[in-house]
From TrEMBL:
Domain of life: Bacteria
Keyword Oxidoreductase: yes
NCBIfam families named among the record's database cross-references: PRK08268.1
Protein name, entry field: 3-hydroxyacyl-CoA dehydrogenase
Length: 505
């Protein structure tokens, strides 16, 4: 099925950042593209800016000069909204205000044909609410491109309550024909990516607010252990603290101030003080040309332990046992039903972060989750005031013997990567249960939209079915605000497995 034939033009209304990007995508896909902006002259400026970007593609050999020339000929700035009458699709990318979008759509409905598909690129408004302005909301759909639209492959195709299945399918096929990777999703706050990604920022900020570690250390752990491309602090400095906070705020408000989406006080202070990130020269980090980039905390070299005792199954950290052996450290294995720990020569214990704090056990050090313990270059350890210096030194020496940098953080239950991943997995399960999208589409959206190394369901499978539930359940005990309360969907997922495996514990 082809989405739209190339004989009738498509239109982009609102020719700012996103409008220009979307227009470029449609042009390169072979469409004639009409551009309209409320500010006179801006559509023409946008056409010139798109032409200049196509020139750069020619310089980089990604487009031939002839392709650029025909694309530019197909770019048609419009002086009046009425000039869009012959379009088979109109994508609006005007300012993010419900009244502005509704007014525009009402006007468009009187201009275009009945079978013209109408789409919005809104990132935070409800598609259903915007479409409420239309006499025929069935033809209205969300086409949520990511910035920069010509480069980023993901498009969330959002169906409002009134969107016809045929309109959603047309939009989906169109995005595909334009070389994008569409995912289908329901009209909920944040759609897929902006909803499920919230804990990535929130948990990093929470660890910082709890005095668990400084931004440079948290970022390094998220990158080097979690496998995320960037840490939450450096990423929000790049996005802009105001932009990132406004998405968080909008999702939180739209969910009627659901505690799981509570914005960060520390980030609020940054925004209030104008520390917006790279664009203002200072955010979490200082970008003055002579400013020193803070280094992550990295522990001093410690002696490797001569041996470790492995009690039980280390679950997602099971690979460590082979790695410890390969590093020439003797491993004694003990089959302990209740234990999933390493015991160090001094008698202290080393356990994977599980949502408990180090004060609850005598002399324990927790280590954080890694995406892949072999490839991780850094591991975070957390110790309490009751942890003996010997245990911390032995734990540090053990990971250093495996070739890792070690960052010692405060006694933060769930540490950094573990709590972040558990919450992302939980929100993903919750979203599927609530009909937001399929597991496959959520995985695709998080990999392509925010570059996660694994989709939440891929991660969930790798970690084992009970892992995220058990961790969040423990965190919820220690912070009963509801922020960490595992969803019913995650509970079902974990419990169903237990039953299949013959245990109901
Ligand atoms: N910037 C992003 O990263 C991003 C990402 C995804 C989605 N979005 C969404 O895309 C939309 C546009 O965002 P942007 O960043 O491109 O904004 P922008 O400010 O760069 O551009 C908006 C353009 O719309 C024009 N405009 C305003 N009202 C209009 C109207 N009634 N009719 C015609 N033109 C009008 C403005 O003159 C301006 O040129 C918003 O809904 C936003 O939420 C933005």
């Amino acid at each position: 099925m082809t989405a739209l034939d190339l004989s009738s033009p498509v239109a982009v209304v609102g020719t700012g950042t996103m409008g220009q990007g979307i227009a470029q995508v449609a042009l390169v896909a072979g469409h004639r593209v009409r551009l309209y902006d409320a500010v006179p002259g801006r559509a023409l400026e946008a056409a010139e800016a798109i032409g200049a970007r196509l020139d750069r593609l020619v310089e980089k050999d990604r487009l031939t000069a002839a392709e650029r020339d025909t694309a530019c000929e197909r770019l048609l700035p419009a002086a009046d909204l009425a000039d869009l009458a012959d379009c088979s699709l109109v994508v609006e990318a005007v300012l993010e205000r419900l009244d502005a979008k509704q007014e525009l759509l009402r006007a468009l409905e009187d201009i275009v044909d009945e079978d013209c598909l109408l789409a919005t690129n809104t990132s935070s408004l409800s598609v259903t609410a915007i479409g409420g302005a239309l006499r025929s909301p069935g033809r209205f759909v969300g086409l949520h491109f990511f910035n920069p639209a010509p480069l980023l492959p993901l498009v969330e195709v959002v169906s409002g309550f009134a969107t016809d299945v045929t309109s959603a399918t047309r939009a989906y096929e169109l995005a595909r024909a334009w070389g994008k990777t569409p995912v289908a999703c329901a009209d909920t706050p944040g759609f897929i990516v902006n909803r499920i990604a919230r804990p990535f920022y929130a948990e990093a900020f929470a660890v910082y607010e709890a005095q668990g570690a400084d931004p440079a250390t948290i970022d390094a752990v998220l990158r080097e252990s979690g496998g995320f491309r960037m840490g939450a602090f450096e990423l929000t400095d790049l996005i802009g603290q105001d932009v990132n906070e406004s998405v968080t705020h909008s999702v939180w408000q739209s969910f009627f101030q659901d505690v799981r989406f509570t914005p960060s006080l520390a980030q609020r202070r940054l925004v209030e003080s104008g520390r917006l990130g790279r664009k203002s020269g200072h955010g979490w980090y200082d970008y003055a040309h002579d400013a020193e980039r803070p280094e992550p905390h990295t522990a001093e070299e410690q002696q490797r332990p001569a041996y470790v005792v492995v009690e039980g199954d280390l679950g997602p950290a099971g690979e460590l046992v082979a790695m410890i052996r390969e590093a020439g450290i003797q491993v004694r294995e003990e089959d302990e039903d209740h234990g999933t720990r390493l015991v160090l020569p001094g008698g202290g214990q080393l356990a994977l972060a599980d949502g408990q704090t180090s004060v609850e056990f005598r002399d324990v050090v927790y280590f954080d989750l890694a995406l892949d313990y072999r490839r991780a270059t850094r591991i975070a350890l957390s110790a309490s005031q009751d942890t003996s210096p010997q245990t911390l030194a032995e734990a540090t020496g053990l990971f250093q013997a495996l070739g890792k940098d070690v960052s010692v953080i405060g006694d933060v239950p769930g540490m950094i990567v573990a709590r972040t991943v558990a919450r992302i997995v939980d929100l993903a399960h919750d979203a599927v249960a609530k009909g937001v999208a399929t597991e496959e589409d959520i995985d695709t959206a998080m990999r392509l939209g925010v570059n996660y190394p694994l989709g939440p369901f891929e991660w969930s499978r790798k970690l084992g079915r009970n892992w995220a539930y058990a961790l969040l359940d423990d965190l919820h005990l220690r912070d009963p605000s509801g922020r960490y309360a595992p969803s019913l969907a995650l509970y079902r997922h974990a419990y169903a497995t237990d039953k299949r495996e013959g245990s109901t514990s």
